[in-house]
UniProtKB/TrEMBL annotation:
This is 6-phosphogluconolactonase. Belongs to the cycloisomerase 2 family. GO terms for biological process: glucose metabolic process. Residues 1-23 form the signal peptide. It holds the Pfam family Lactonase. One of its GO terms (cellular component) is cytosol. Keywords: Carbohydrate metabolism, Glucose metabolism, Signal.
Amino acid sequence: MFRLVIGLCAASMLSSACTTRNASQQRAEHELTMLVGTYTSGSSKGIYTFRFNEESGVATPLSEIEVSNPSYLTLSPDNRFVYAVSEENDSTAAINAFAFDKKKGTLTLLNKQRTKGEDPCYVATDGKKVLTANYSGGTMSVFPIRYDGSLESVDTLFQGTASGPDPDRQATPHIHCTLFSPDGNYIFATDFSADRILRYAVHSKEELPRPLAETVNIQPGSGPRHLIFSKDRKYAYLINELSGKVIAFTYSDGRLNEIQTIVADTIQARGSADIHLSPDGKYLYASNRLKEDGIAIFEVNPEKGTLAKVGYQLTGLHPRHFNITPNGKFLLVACRDSNMIQVFERDTVSGLLKNTGKNIKMSKPVCIQFAENK
């Protein structure tokens, strides 16, 4: 009997240990490392990292690092490095390079380089180069990446123009977004004050962009802001800040051909901001600010790439940037003027959003990025 009891206890303990390990493994499988860039004019210090569970929607703080106005940041393709702007309106405007430990959520500054353009507000990388869109400077900066992830000084600057009809918002050149095409052969930049998209050719990973090859003209007064591509590389979508419209394009070998224009900002608040597709490509979301702040929701036609509006979700104030978890379950909104990140659960069938109430309170959050712990 004694041996039987011992045996049963050992089996019970083993089963309990296995159950605990399995639960721990399941949690780890669903945990992302979340990075949040902020404006540091309030109480924020810079970049904050969290462990975010994409099944439960719960965020746990990890670390922070002091850096001035990291209003936009991005990860290298291998998640080993983070590049974040310092959005300053003078000669101190810069791009910061960090080594990133995604398991611990820690960042170590490698170096910083001046953008030579004021108010850098967007950053992208292909692992060989880093691009910044310098809003007030009206330029795009290109930085070669060293072997250790740090940055060389700016090598190339491309200047935008100002020819739009809005005397207040388009009086001087503004570049708002710079990104690589899905095939890596081109760079696109939104020339906000000239109502056009600029295209540059990059025919190898190592060489710098070649001179302007093509422009895509947008309706005057639109204020093109953020451009994204579908995962299948067939379509691209542009959110226009001033007109509040989303433009859908077909995409092929650097060519953008407009197929549809649809309104995201129905009250003409002139503050449309960010745009993202759900991971499955079935829904597109676009944020609006200044009035009736929120997220416009569109269903994507899988055969044509066109959009149909299906809903609108009110958010906190000034949703400048938002992001969707890789599994598509949650959409997180950085509400700058409400000093919080709102966590919405997505209905993957209807595309609609439900506020979970799991707000992450912090001063002036403006950018959210995720790294998968795999």
